[in-house]
Amino acid sequence: MVVLSQPALEPFSLIKTCKPVAFFSTIPVVDLTDPHAKTLIVKACEEFGFFKLVSHGVPLEFMTKLEALATNFFNLPQPEKDKIGPPDPFGYGNKKIGPNGDVGWVEYLLLNTNPQIAFQKTFSIFQENQQNFRYAVEDYILSVKRMTFEVLELIADGLGIESRNVFSRMLRNDKSDSCFRLNHYPPCPELQALSGRNLIGFGEHTDPQIISVLRSNNTNGLQICLKDGTWVSVPPDQTSFFFNVGDALQVMTNGRFKSVKHRVLADPLKSRISMIFFGGPPLGEKIAPLTSLIAEREESLYREFTWSEYKRSAYKSRLADYRLGLFEKTAGQ
Ligand SMILES: C=C1C[C@]23C[C@@]1(O)CC[C@H]2[C@@]12CC[C@H](O)[C@@](C)(C(=O)O1)[C@H]2[C@@H]3C(=O)O
Ligand SMILES: O=C(O)CCC(=O)C(=O)O
Ligand SMILES: [Fe+2]
Questions:
Q1: Which secondary-structure segment (H or E) carries 72?
Q2: How far, CA to CA in Å, does 330 sit from each of 106, 264, 286, 302, 322?
Q3: Dihedral sign, CA of 158, 159, 161, 166?
Q4: Which atom of ligand 2 is closest in space to residue 276's alpha carbon?
Q5: Hey, which residues are catalytic here?
Q6: Domain of 59?
Q7: CATH number of the structural domain spanning residue 253
Q8: Tell me, what's the ipTM?
Q9: Structure pTM?
Q10: d(CA 139, CA 180)
Q11: Number of domains making up the chain
């Protein structure tokens, strides 16, 4: 018997597919200049762990410039990009996500934003002819950080916490372990034609840090999981930012905010480019529920751990794992 191979499917053989889902029509949108912003942000973080921010003050030019330069970078010949990979976890990566066998229809550049590390490793990634790219990354990150500090201070205000820098100080710290990621999801028309499904670009997961701030071009793909377990597509908006609550903020709010499960599907016809700033604490920072957020007759749901401990544990996990499980207190502890 002759067994026919399916050469057209070969590059996708390890990458899962998924059916498209409905659009998220009631996505919380917060205007940063609105006097009620703090209340709206807290409500969105409690309900979805997710919101869209408009009138954010980050110049549009920084966003479009970086998108153009990232597109140029991803259009370089493969051997050029491979020179700055494989990721350790920083550097250029293609299809492989993290160290434990996760794959997706994505190529990316992962950078550390801590100046002490950044100047050694990250910026050696930008070779001589990539200086404009490096400056665009720096301008963008500086401006996004400023906006993120403001959002974190509004969150503290909205939660009625006395010291409004309780979260933002961890990102403002020189030793903050934040990182920045540029993702490129190439189109995949062959697969769509063959199966009527989309390739999974980035599989379902929560982000381990305090908060993630995402901006993408105008291509669909991002989906979030609602409390009832249904997945919804987030309509792209290239002029706005999408904020995700991360695991560390779930812990510090003793579960009042939930880190949002999300994933990305590749579009059959259009490239998706996204840029995400992951705001993380310094490695030695102790993460635990804030006493003022543990309600009367409520218990602390998590044991204290350092960010370094959590990160180590995250890097031993698979993308879709529930990473906080190991840090939950069991009854009576
Ligand atoms: C599979 C993995 C990739 C990841 C590290 C991990 O072991 C589990 C968490 C993953 C994640 C998700 C959010 C960010 O994109 C990321 C940089 C992070 O901090 O945690 C990635 C990690 C990665 O791609 O290196
Ligand atoms: O690329 C995207 O739109 C989101 C990717 C993501 O969730 C991540 O890199 O952690
Ligand atoms: Fe993510």
A1: helix 60-74
A2: 38, 33, 20, 9, 16
A3: negative
A4: 9
A5: 272
A6: 8-325
A7: 2.60.120.330
A8: 0.99
A9: 0.94
A10: 13
A11: 1
